Amino acid sequence: MRDFSYLRAASVDAARAGAIQPGAMLLAGGTTLLDLAKCGVATPDTVIDVTHLSGLSAIEVDADGARIGALAKMAAVADDPAIIAAFPAISQSLTLAASQQLRNMATIGGNLMQRTRCPYFRDPGTFSACNKRAPGSGCSAIGGVTRNHAVLGVSDACIATYHGDLAVALVAFDAVVEIGERSVAIDDFFLVPGDTPERETLIEAGEMITGIRVPASAGAGNSVYLKVRDRQSYEFAAASAAVSLELEDDGRTVRDIRVALGGVATKPWRARAVEQALIGKAIDAETVKAASLLAVEGAVSNGGNQYKIALAPRVVARAISDLASKTARTSGGQA
Amino acid sequence: MTRTIPLSLAINGKPHTLDVEPRVTLLDALREHLSLTGTKKGCDQGQCGACTCHVDGERVLSCLTLAAQVEGRQVTTIEGIAGEDGTLHAVQKAFIEQDAFQCGYCTPGQIMSAVACIREGHAGSDAEIREYMSGNLCRCGAYNSIVAAVREAAAAVSVNEKVEAA
Q1: Which chain A residue is nearest to residue B132, measuring alpha carbons?
Q2: Could you say which residues from 103 to 142 on chain B have a Cβ atom under 8 Å away from some Cβ of chain A?
Q3: I need a surface site. Which of A59, A93, A154, B116 has the fewest CB within 10 A?
């Protein structure tokens, strides 16, 4: 790891003022930045430690929804009783991510700023071509080993997967990212690669995420994060789905549904076509299966990741079906 | 030119001062600067858990923590969990009792993780222990014995707490 200067920010304003300098990077939990610095991907001249700032780690839940401070730890949010009750998919997405050590370190703001796990991106010593690292240098993944690469939102410049879990749940809930004075809808916060894969979020130099707001929604309390992966724990998603579901009083007709995908796209992926296909419909296995196939509309395989196109709809269908049968049981209706 | 920064760290209840480059991790500070070599370096990139320590009582990976970040925090390492008279911690006893290691290299990290896992209340069943210990890899594959040791230690800690409360 190349050496750098270390500054401890005394205030959010001081952190922003420092972060706008060329070569400066904000350091929170360190689980992404120090990892990437060791890989040689991140080469900060100055690291600005924001972990000693106070007042940015509150978790508040009320009738309007939740507000989570940017420095709240993943573990704290995962175990927060009010979050578990109001937004179970958020708690589950965090509990199923990383390990407890990493969840004790990593912050919610830092979680949104994590970079892709694309092995070509993370290995500049072996693979010089990476449009995300070095714009215009090419993509080593296309034509390479692509088992874990994205099938949705890809471009000719980049097929790196967004592998995070929390943001998938947040996209389903229409969360808002607070960046100081401005607020950005989370679906807009994350960018597809297009011709500029080096740009992954709307964050500008000198900006810092200060919190996340999650608006209350009817189905939020009846939500799930289902993560399918190569090993049972401490592994990134092969495919995942965050789903919330509200049924009509008959216990079988969909009043509202939110569906988002992880592990298969270049950003946390809202599957609105699946939602539209199910709203107003009675839930049964065939309807859910047909609607879930819409989750991978427009998917493009690059070889080894072909299986994701088959897997993702099955994960979505299982998440919806599990929620529907649970809802029907609790409301006494027939599924 | 090497630039160093002065740090004061509280480790296992004792103050330490050192001068290190800003990039020095807590792991390297412990091992290379303070001769506390009980904490092990495995992957050095946050994937294996061998370097697990406690900061303010919570388990973290010292390989992805800068030494500078823990100034003002309480750091506990494997050297700091036995009693002052050398009495082993319940988790240490259980690892010996259950033969929960082979080569032993991952063991300090496993034990630090297990101590925290039990304190967090995440050792309620074998399935929960496996999930919450998944950040600690064991290349020898002693997992079944590790789960047994955590289960045994969790029961012992629970009994001790009841005795102390009585």
Answers
A1: A100
A2: 113, 116-117, 120, 122, 130-132, 134-136
A3: A59
Q: How near does any CA of chain B get to the CA of A35, in Å? A: 6
Q: Which residue of A has its CA nearest to B135?
A: A99
Non-local (6+) Cβ contacts of A94 within 8 A are A74, A75, A77, A78, A103, A165, A166
Whether B105 is covered by a domain: the verdict is yes
pLDDT digits (tens, 9 = 90+) for A174-205: 999 999 999 999 999 999 999 999 999 999 99
**Residues 74-103 (B) with a CB less than 8 A from some CB of A:** none
Q: What angle do CA A255, A312, A99 make, to 5 degrees?
A: 100
Domain with B69, as residue range(s), is: 5-80
This model of the complex carries an ipTM of: 0.96
DSSP conformation letters of B113-150: HHHHHHHHT--SSHHHHHHHTTTS--TT--HHHHHHHH
pTM here is 0.96
Select from B45, B60, B113 the Cβ nearest to the Cβ of A105: B60
**Structural domains present in chain A:** 5-49 (3.30.43), 223-331 (3.30.390.50)
Q: Determine the residue type at A266.
A: T
- Cβ–Cβ gap B59/A4 under 8 Å: no
Q: Convert the pLDDT of each residue in A277-318 to its tens digit.
A: 999 999 999 999 999 999 999 999 999 999 999 999 999 999
- The answer on B160 and B119 residing in a single domain is yes
Q: Is A275 helix (H, G, I), strand (E, B) or coil?
A: helix
Structure confidence by residue, pLDDT tens digits, B90-143: 999 999 999 999 999 999 999 999 999 999 999 999 999 999 999 999 999 999
Is the predicted pLDDT of residue A332 greater than 70, yes or no? no
SS3 for B111? helix
Structure tokens at B50: 């061998």
Q: What's the CA gap between A177 and A188, in Å, rounded?
A: 10
The answer to whether the CB of A59 falls within 8 A of the CB of A108 is no
